[in-house]
């Protein structure tokens, strides 16, 4: 019989908890970065259509995501 490790309740709950912690840390880091920058990131990207800033913010988001995932994975 095939073992379904991910269906065990403790594994499932741990996955949900780590996902929520990861999203929370990511959001907190993004808010900190938004506060540290001299401009309003959302206003620059959405209202002024600053594509270069959007690419930089996307790369920062990906970097934070990789760091959080590596920290949680252990």
Notes on the protein architecture:
This protein is an all-alpha fold and 74 residues long. Helix content is 78%, strand content 0%. It has helices at residues 9-36, 41-47, 51-73.
Question: What does this entry show, briefly?
Answer:
The chain has about 70 residues and is mainly alpha-helical. It is built from three helices and no strands.
Using only CA atoms, what is the Rg? Answer: 17 Å
Low-confidence stretches: none
- Encode the helix/strand succession as letters: HHH
Which assembly state applies to the chains in this document? single chain
Mean pLDDT: 84
Number of helices: 3
Biggest sheet overview? none
* β-strand amount: under 5%
Q: Approximately how much helix is present in the residues?
A: over 70%
Shape: elongated
Distance between the termini: 30 Å
- Structural class, by secondary structure, is mainly alpha
Give descriptors for this structure.
3 helices; mainly alpha; 74 residues; 78% helix
Strand and helix map with partners:
Blueprint: H1 9-36, H2 41-47, H3 51-73
